[in-house]
Amino acid sequence: MDTQLGKTAAYVAGDYSIADIACFPWTMTHKAQGFTLDDYPNIKRWYAQVRARPQVQAGLAIGKFVKEPFDEEARKNMFGERAKELAGRK
């Protein structure tokens, strides 16, 4: 990824795209994975740039309000029978 980001203008595929949206969450866990972005200058630049986007900031802010694990009703809606119903897979 660092090599690719060194070849492109600013983002993974040149312009901000689904590629950046997909890669960003994986990169957010770099500390938990045991590495520093200092070793990857192009990823470090990209990560800061993506994280600074207002839309990304708004999305990250939503997670700050989730303090407790999902209750059973939320779990059913997201992953259980209700989600299957909404998807038409009763």
Summary tags:
90 residues, mainly alpha, 6 helices, elongated
Briefly summarize what is shown.
The chain has 90 residues and is mostly helical. The chain has helices at residues 2-7, 18-28, 41-51, 54-64, 72-79, 81-86.
Describe this protein's structure.
59% of the residues lie in helices and 0% in strands. It is elongated. It has helices at residues 2-7, 18-28, 41-51, 54-64, 72-79, 81-86. It contains 6 helices and no strands. The protein has one domain. By secondary structure, the protein is mainly alpha-helical.
Helix and strand arrangement:
Elements: H1 2-7, H2 18-28, H3 41-51, H4 54-64, H5 72-79, H6 81-86
The pLDDT mean sits at 83
Task: Determine the fraction of residues in helical runs and give it as a percent range.
Answer: 55-70%
Q: How far from one another are the termini?
A: 41 Å
Number of strands: 0
Element-by-element helix/strand order: HHHHHH
**Low-confidence region ranges:** none
Q: Looking at the structure, what is the overall shape?
A: elongated
Structural class: mainly alpha
The domain count comes to: 1
Helical stretch tally: 6
Main sheet attributes: strand count, strand direction, barrel closure: none
Estimated share of beta-strand residues: under 5%
Rg estimate, integer Å: 17 Å
